[in-house]
Design a protein that fits this description.
Helix content is 21%, strand content 31%. The protein has 127 residues and is an alpha+beta fold. The strands form two sheets. Strands 2-1-4-7 form a four-stranded antiparallel sheet, with no helix packed on it. Strands 3-8-5-6 form a four-stranded antiparallel sheet, with no helix packed on it. The relative contact order is 0.20. It binds calcium ion (3 copies).
Length: 127
Amino acid sequence: MRRQHIFAVAAVLALTGLPAYAADLEVQVVDKNCFIEIFEDDNFDVDDPHVVLQGPKEYATLKNLAGKDWSNDIESVIVGSNATVRAYEDKDFKGTEIAFAPGQRVPNLGKLDMANDIESLKITCGK
Ligand SMILES: [Ca+2]
Ligand SMILES: [Ca+2]
Ligand SMILES: [Ca+2]
């Protein structure tokens, strides 16, 4: 009797595992392709600090992100395939503004004259 019960549970898990997982994602309303990953160094150097910022979200300051002051310290970025990001030279979305397109990878923000200069960000989802 007990063995039969265990078998039944395993069968249900096998049949419903995938749909249950998809339902969970829906409930969380997290678009895993709506993000920007920021790197302290250029060329996406994972040996130096880097962090993924989930969108949609606006950051009027980068002073305390994941326990670090990121103001004027970002040198490369990877943008998720469903995110558009606006970055600003100063905090509170002021100063020079640059936009990153969905899926864009920028190995050296110096080419855009924005290396170690970004102080605020807006992440929007959808194309
Ligand atoms: Ca480095
Ligand atoms: Ca830096
Ligand atoms: Ca700046």
